TrEMBL record:
<comment type="similarity">
    <text>Belongs to the carbon-nitrogen hydrolase superfamily. BTD/VNN family.</text>
</comment>
<dbReference type="InterPro" id="IPR036526">
    <property type="entry name" value="C-N_Hydrolase_sf"/>
</dbReference>
<dbReference type="Pfam" id="PF00795">
    <property type="entry name" value="CN_hydrolase"/>
</dbReference>
<feature type="domain" description="CN hydrolase">
    <location>
        <begin position="1"/>
        <end position="178"/>
    </location>
</feature>
<dbReference type="InterPro" id="IPR003010">
    <property type="entry name" value="C-N_Hydrolase"/>
</dbReference>
<protein>
    <recommendedName>
        <fullName>CN hydrolase domain-containing protein</fullName>
    </recommendedName>
</protein>
<dbReference type="InterPro" id="IPR040154">
    <property type="entry name" value="Biotinidase/VNN"/>
</dbReference>
<dbReference type="GO" id="GO:0017159">
    <property type="term" value="F:pantetheine hydrolase activity"/>
</dbReference>
<dbReference type="GO" id="GO:0015939">
    <property type="term" value="P:pantothenate metabolic process"/>
</dbReference>
Amino acid sequence: TVALNVCQQGTRRGPMQERLSCMARNNSIYVVANMGDKKLCNSSDPSCPSDGRYQYNTDVVFDPEGKLVARYHKYNLFRREIQFNYPKEPEAVTFETPFGKFGIFTCFDILFHEPAVVLVSKLQVDTVLFPTAWMNVLPFLTAIEFHSAWAMGMGVNLLSANTHNISLAMTVEVMFLH
């Protein structure tokens, strides 16, 4: 990902990304968000949807200067994500910070070799950012137990942020350090 500073360059990337970029810049922090992203395509692409655009479940990361330093399009879509497309190939997205090498993926991706295991085993990240809408399912897929076990088993820090929707068995969770 090119280090684009949306805060300084205006709304070319849209008002939400501009706001996130400025939030990072104005507070000198990293900001991570999950959002929809669309990419135009044309009829020369046989997989191009009829409306001429792909829509992705996307994570973005802005650095303390407001630069976009990572963008990840979710590859392993959960069955309810019919509004999204997935990229042709899984993406292994990393970025460097003064406090380590980070990787990022979303929710259901944690259950698959790509990108989750690849980020740790091949790309040697020490921390994974993990935006999620995780439904706690007993007995094996409760968020806190599963995510902490994954972090310990992989030997990485997992910074997890879950949505809070009790009616869907989604509860807030915290980070897991190995």
